[in-house]
Specification:
The model has no long low-confidence stretch (mean pLDDT 91). This protein has no helices and nine strands. It is 0% helix and 44% strand. The protein has one domain. The strands form three sheets. A three-stranded antiparallel beta sheet has the order 1-2-3, with no helix packed on it.
Amino acid sequence: LDLSVGSSHSCAIRTDGTIECWGLGHGGLLDAPDGSYSSVSASRNHSCAVRVDGNVECWGLDYSGLLDAPNGPFTTVSASPSHSCAIRTDGTIECWGTFRAPPQGVAFH
């Protein structure tokens, strides 16, 4: 289970792994993709979640590449109004959107 509260909507992972979002639904914010997920993060205009296979899916308004998540595998994701970042299974960070540069050469465990 996981829960995240954005500016105008919230999303949670149900016990069966699917995502339910509620609140203001502008720009597809409430239209979480089908599938089974392990982590979710809601922001102002988009949300992202990690599928059980480690890939990230993002939905909502696509400003500056906010929905263009790189291929996994990832363990967790965090969405912000301008960009999103996810932690890979090897501990490195990858970001996309307006600000894409994480700390170079640093692994987080």
